[in-house]
Amino acid sequence: MTSKENILISLAEKISNEDIRIIDLTNTLSSEFPVIVLPPEFGQCDHFSMETISKYDDNGPAWYWNKISMNEHTGTHFDAPAHWVTGKDLPNNSVDSIPLKNFMAPAVVIDISKECAKNSDFLITKKFLIGWEEQYGQIPKNHWIALRTDWHKFVGSPKYLNMQNDGAHSPGPDKSAVEYLVHEKNCIGLAVETVGTDAGQAFDFDPPLPAHSILHGNGKYGLQCLRNLDKLPTFGSIIVANPLKIENGSGSPLRVFALVDGQNDEL
Amino acid sequence: MTKQKKYLTKKNPLVKSKINHVSSHLRSRATKALACHAAKGDFVLQECSECQYISYPPRDRCPKCWGVLTWKHQKRHATLLAETTIHSTTDLYFREHVPWRIGTILLDVGPTAFAHLHSNVQVGDKLKIHVMLDRSGNPALFAMPRKVTVNMEEDYQYSQFTASPKGKRILISDGRTEIGQKLTYELIKAGAEIVYLGNADSNLRFKGQDSISKHKNVKIIPLNLLSTKSVKKCSQQYGGKVDILINTASYVRSGSIAFSGKITEMQNAIDLNVNGLTRLAKAFCPAMSARSGDEERPAIAFLDILSIFSLTSHPDYASLAASSAARLSIINSLRSEMSLSGLKVFSTLIGPIEDEWHQDIPPPKVTAEQIAKSVITSLKNGQELTLVGNVAKDIFEKWSANPLLTMRETIK
Amino acid sequence: MKRYQKSYEGVSLCAPITIPYRRYSPETAHWWAGAALKELSLQTNLTANDIDGVIFSSFSSNPDTVVGIVQHLGLSPTWMDNIPTGGASGVMAIRRAARAVQSGDANIVVCIAADTNHIDSFQKTLDTFSRFSQDATYPYGQGGPNATFAIMTEYFMRKFNLTREEFGKIAIAQRQNASTNPIALMKKPLNMNQYLDAKPIANPLHLFDCVMPCAGAEAFVVTTPEVAEKFNLSTVKVLSTIERHNAFSEDHIQYRGGWVKDIDDLWSSSNYNPSDINFAQVYDDYPVIVAMQLQDLGFCENGKIKQFINDTDFTIMGDLPLNTNGGQLSAGQAGAAGGYQNVTEALRQCIKQPLGQQIPNSTKGLISGFGMVNYDRGVCTGAAIIKTDTIR
Asked: Is residue A21 part of a domain?
C-alpha cells in the first residue's frame, strides 16, 4: 500500500503539515481553576492541588516531579454515565469501560454566545434547536453537541461561576433540548465551556439538572470546562476526548482537543 | 511616663535588619515547668507540700525541709530592693537592647528574685510581678508598677515580651469567616496598621465582604491554604511585610469515625487544618524569622486558633478533633523551631463556636467576638496559650488534672 | 558553740608558681596546668614521682576534672581532690592539702589552678556555670556576673553610705601595686577621674570595677617541713583557716559573706588581731567584694567601711598593703587561677620572693577567698592567716 492509499498515513501527513489543525479545548489544571460549588452540606469538589516531590534538590537531585490530587470532575473533565444516578445501572458506564470508539467523534458547534452575553441564564430549548437547524442545517446524529457560549473567557473572574445568593447563573439546556438531542439525534454527549453541562440554576428545574439526568441516563457523556469552542467550525470537526482509565471512575480530567480541517477554517 | 517604643511607618531600605538573637535555651526541667504556667499567664511559685515554704529559683526539693515541691498560684505583689541598668553585656540578645534595667525584687510571699523592670518602677516601689515568656520561649519575671497607668503596656522592655498589635501589619489567613472579620475589626481597634485578609476563593463572594473590603486598614488578598502555590505566592508578596500572622482557617464537619464520617471529610479536615497550617508556616515563618530581630519593624508572632477537642478527641466531630490534635502538635513543633529565631508562637484553643457547623452541640458556645477579643488580649499580654469559652476552659482544666479520664469522658 | 579546730602543725606551704597571664590563649587548661608543673619542677626539682597528692581547680578543663589532668600529665598520686569553687578554691586547697599532709594520706601535695581563655571561653563557661544562673540570672541579660554585682554594689552603697570614690580608691591602689608587677596585664596608672568617667557597664559599675578574664595558671605545694628542707624550699605556716558556704541565705541581697559567721574563730586560733597583720590578699573580682571582706574580716567595725577605706592606704608601702600583685582587677582574672593568686602572692610576700615590690615587713598575712555566684550572691567564702616560717 502506498501512503496515498492509506487514510491514516494521509491524516498524519495532513496533521504534520497543518492541513488539519489541532485545537486545544483544554483549560490548564491549576489550583486556581474554579470547580463546581454544591450546597455546603454536600461533599464538595476538590480543586486541583500539586505538591512538588523533588525539583533537582535534596529530595531528587536530577529529577523533577509532583504529587497531584483532584476530583474526577476538576478542571476540563469528562462525565461518564455512572456520574449520575440515572446512569448507575447502565453497561459500560464508567470511564474504564466506555467503548474506545466514543472517545473520538465529530462535533457540531451551536453558537449561543450572543444570547448568553445578554442573559447569563440563557436556556437552550428544543424550539431553539429546531430554529437553529432551519438556519444552519440538520444536527447530525452521533455527534458531540458543543455549546459555544464564550463562557471560557470568564475563567479567572467571579463571573465564571457567577455565584449569587440564589445560586449560580450560567447557560445550559432545558429538558426539551436534552431529550431532543439524546433521543432524536443520538448525540455522543454535550460539550460545554461552563463548569457543568447543566445551567447554573438547573437544580431548580423539573427534573432537576436535566442535562446530567437525561444524558447519563441514556449512556451519553458530558465534557465541561472547555475552551476554544469559538475556533471550531459549525460542522466537520472531530473531538478527541479520552479520559484516564480509572477503575469504576465517574469521570476524569483530560486533555481534549479537536481536529479541524485547515482549508475549511471558518475563522 | 512610660518609655515607649517608636512606631515607624517605613524602615530605611538601605539599613540591614539586625539578626535576632535569643538568650541561651539551657533551662532546668523545673524552669520549663514554670514556662508552662507562664504560657497561660499564671503567676505560680513552688511551694513545699510539707512545710509550705515558698522558694525561687525553681528547685527539685524544698531547701528548708527537703519535702516535695508543687507549683501554686501566688500573690504577685513585691517590692523593688535594688536595681541596675545594664549598658554592656556579652549576651547577644540584650546587646541589641541595652540600656536595659533589671533589679532584685522581694516578693511578698518570701523569695527574692531578679526581674526585668518596667520603666515606671523605682527602688522601694510596690510592684506587680508577671511571669512572661521571653523571645526564646523561656520564663522571666517582669516587674510592673502596682498602679495601672495609661499606655503602660507600651513600655519598651515590656513590649519585648509581648506581641501587641499596635502599629503592626497583620495577616489573617481566612477572612471569609465571621471570626476572621471580627478579629480584623478588633485588631484595627487595637491599633493595627493594616490587616491583610486572606480570601481563599476570589470567585465566590463572602458574607461581610462589601463592608470589610471598604475599610482603609484592610486589604483583601488571595490566599488559599489548600494550595501550596497560592500560599507561596502570597508569602512572596507579603512575607516581608507581615509582623503578626493569625491562622483563622478551620474545616469543621460533624461525623464519626466508623459510621457517619467520610474519609473525604477527614482528608479535607487534614488538608486545611493540618496541611494548611504547615503550608502557612513553611511559607511565612522563614521570612518572618529573618525579620524577628529588626529594630524598627520586627516580625513577632504566629498565632493559631484551633479547637479544644485537639486535647480530647470528639466522637461526633472526629475529623475536627483528629486534625486539631495534629494542628496542636504542629504548633508545638513550630514553637520549638521558632524559639531559635525569637518569633513567638501562640495558640488560642476555642470551644465549639456559634456557627452552622456546630448546630448539634448544645450551648455554651463561643462567639466570634469572644475569640477576637481573646486573641487581642493574648497578643497584648504575650500569653502563648489562651482558652476561649467555658467549654474550652472546662475541658482544659479537666485535661490538666487527668488527661486520660478527660479523653474517656468524651465517649458516650 | 565554739568550734575546736586542730592546729596546722607540721604543714608547710611553699613554692608559689605563677605562669604569666595572657588576655586570650589558644591553648587548653591542660596546657596551662602542664606549664605550671614544668615551672614548679624547674624551681624545686620536684618530679612526678615525688608528687603524691594533687588538687586541681579549673572552669575550662571540661570534660576533665583532676582525674583527667592526672592522667594527661602523667602523675600517680595517692590522694587527689577537685575543688570547683572558683575564688574560694585557693583557701580551700590549703585546708584540704594541709589535712592530707598531716594525716599522712599524702606527703607532697601540688595544688594547681589553670584556666585558658579562648575567644568564646567566657560564653561557654556561662552556659554551664550553674543551674540557678541558667534559670534565673542569665535570662535577665547579665551575660556574666557584672549585673549581679552591680545590684549588690548599688545596695551595698546605699546600706553603708558609700560613694563610687571609695571603690575607686581600692581600684586605684591596686593598680599602683600592679605597676611594680611585670606580669600584671594592666599596669597603666589609673586616676580617680579616669575611674569615675570610665565606660558604664551596669550602674553603678564602670569599666575599672570589673575584672578582665584571661588565661593563666597558679600552683603551690603543701608538704611537711622535712620535705621542704630536703628540697631546699622556703616555707610558710598556716595559723588558722575558716570556710563557710551558703551563709546568710536569708539576706535579701548580699551585703556580708560567710566570714562573719566564723571570724572570731579565725582570729582566736591565730592568736593575732587584724591590726597585727602585715598585708591582705583578698578576692577582688569587683571592689565591692574587697570592701565587704575588709569589713567582714574585722579590719573595721561593722558599718564603718566607708571611713576605713578613706583612712587606709592600701598600696605596698601603705598601712594595709592590699593585693600587692595588683589583684585580679589589675593582674587579670584567670578563671579558677584567680582563686589561687591570693595564695601564691601571699606566699611570695612571706618568703620575700615577690613578683613586684616587696612589702617592707611581711611575715603575717591574710588570705581571703570568695567564690561562686551560683545565683544572686557568692556562695563560698574562706580565709587563712599565714606566717613566714623558714626562708631558704
From this structure: yes
